[in-house]
Amino acid sequence: MNPVLQAEQLTKTYLSTDPPTQVLGGVDLAVTPGEFLAVMGASGSGKSTLLYCISGMDRPTSGRVSIEGTDLTALDDNAMARLRLTSMGFVFQQAFFLGNLSIRDNILLPALKATPKAQAEAVVRVDALMERFGIAHVGSHGITEVSGGQLQRASICRALAAEPTIVFADEPTGALNSAMTTEVMGALTEVHRGGSTLVMVTHAPDCAARADRVIYLRDGEVVDSLSLGTWTADDAEAREIAMLEWLRTNGF
Ligand SMILES: Nc1ncnc2c1ncn2[C@@H]1O[C@H](COP(=O)(O)OP(=O)(O)OP(=O)(O)O)[C@@H](O)[C@H]1O
Ligand SMILES: [Mg+2]
After folding, report:
1. Which of 1, 36, 31, 39 has the alpha carbon at shortest distance from 194?
2. Are 168 and 210 part of one and the same domain?
3. Is residue 46 within 6 Å of ligand 1 at its C-beta?
4. Domain residues for 193?
5. Is 12 strand, coil or helix?
6. Nearest CA-CA partner of 35 in 227, 201, 234
7. Which of 2, 11, 66, 75 has minimal CB crowding within 10 Å?
8. To which H or E segment does residue 227 belong?
9. In this structure, which long-range contacts are made by residues 13-21, counting pairs with CB atoms below 8 Å and at least 24 apart in sequence?
10. Are residues 182 and 227 in the same domain?
11. CATH number at residue 62
12. Domain annotation covers residue 38
């Protein structure tokens, strides 16, 4: 199966520091269609930098990234922004919603921009997503009038609204308590079950244990990977134990 995302010999060096900081030291990565990949590693190991470079939010210093065969490194800023809008979904630790729009309009806005000629379809899709992720009843609320878990489920709806090829998440549960974390990981598991390809950076072993595969980053290099297969509630505990053992061997 051809990978959805392929990174080859990706490096990133920040030149703004003296001496320059090399953050990624030649990362090779392939993500297959429908795969749920988790990225773990100590703080500062380069997880977010990797996510930004493979999703076109930042440019690598060298190496190549392609999504469905499109070489991101060859795109200019406009083409990159367009590709992000139409083919990628993003979920961050914070939702980055606009304060003057309702939850529903925040979800709708990027989808309308992505498919300006199919606005009615986008509206139908967004309403179905909000229903599916249990936030339809708070659609008209302002962004301060919902819980943290609801806000993150709204971010997930926004990420899916333009039917992206791949969804990127950087610590999607990083700002949530444990009940809300369970709620949001349930939603991301549902996203994966729906066939989406998902790359998620996380510090939380129980969140990473939901993934099909986990890679471990140390000093900007992928030093280990663990294949877990498809998550089911029945083997959640066994997976978490395997994860913790694997993390321990990597010094996490
Ligand atoms: N714009 C920048 N300029 C210079 N150095 C940077 C820049 N952004 C990140 N770094 C450095 O790159 C390294 C990796 O940062 P990155 O944010 O990718 O780590 P991370 O693994 O996501 O960490 P965390 O788990 O804390 O989020 C860190 O040492 C950081 O200080
Ligand atoms: Mg980070």
Report:
1. 36
2. no
3. yes
4. 75-201
5. strand
6. 227
7. 2
8. strand 221-227
9. 13/61
10. no
11. 3.40.50.300
12. no
Residues of the chain with pLDDT under 50: none
Which residue is it, tokens 């320059």? 20
- CB burial readout 40-75, b (16+ within 10 A) else e: bbeeebbbbbbbbbbbbbeebeebebbbeeeebeeb
147 & 218 share domain = no
Pairing of strands 88-91, 166-170: parallel
Question: Same structural domain for residues 129 and 99?
Answer: yes
Q: Give dist(CA 45, CA 23) in Å, integer.
A: 7
80 & 192 share domain: yes
User: Do both 99 and 67 map to the same domain?
Assistant: no
Q: pLDDT digits over 13-63, tens only?
A: 999 999 999 999 999 999 999 999 999 999 999 999 999 999 999 999 999
For residues 22 and 92, membership in a common domain is answered with no
pLDDT at 1: 81
pLDDT of residue 217: 98
The residue contributing the CA closest to ligand 1 atom 13 is: 44
- Asked if residue 55 lies in contact with residue 168, where contact means CB atoms within 8 angstroms, the answer is yes
202 C-beta closer than 6 A to ligand 1: no
Q: Is residue 102 part of a domain?
A: yes
- The residue nearest atom 24 of ligand 1, judged by CA position, is 43
Q: Record the tokens describing residue 65, joined without a space.
A: 């990234």
Expressed in angstroms and rounded, the spacing between residue 49 Cα and the centre of ligand 1 is 6
